[in-house]
Amino acid sequence: MTTLTCMLKCHGEAVERLLSLPAATQDVGELLSSRLAAEKKAARESFLKIASTLRFLARQGLALRGDGPQEEDGNFNQLLKLRSAGDPGLAERLKRKSSKYTRHDMQTEFLQVMAHRERVLAGDGPPRTSSCR
Known about the structure:
- 69% of the residues lie in helices and 0% in strands.
- The protein has five helices and no strands.
- The chain has 133 residues and is an all-alpha fold.
């Protein structure tokens, strides 16, 4: 094979790959965007399940934390563990040690927001206005 023949063959292969590549792959931006959207959706669903668990315990007048030495002994964590048995997304989120929505300070804030909302809906208090303008 001459050098020219080899170059033409390589060029033909390159053109063929160039034409078939866009059909076989997706744009990187689209891939990242769709992955981010899926992660946001999963996080939102987990957040709603965590919030509804907290709301359930509050409406029933049950303690969130247990009196045992382990944090997992509390009603909140046990109920979330039960709910995560059929939900792999929630189970994965709860396995993370940095799950900020299950921390005590976040639970307190959720309860305060829920209580405020209930007071406003019941007409027992004026809606809270922001002090920042």
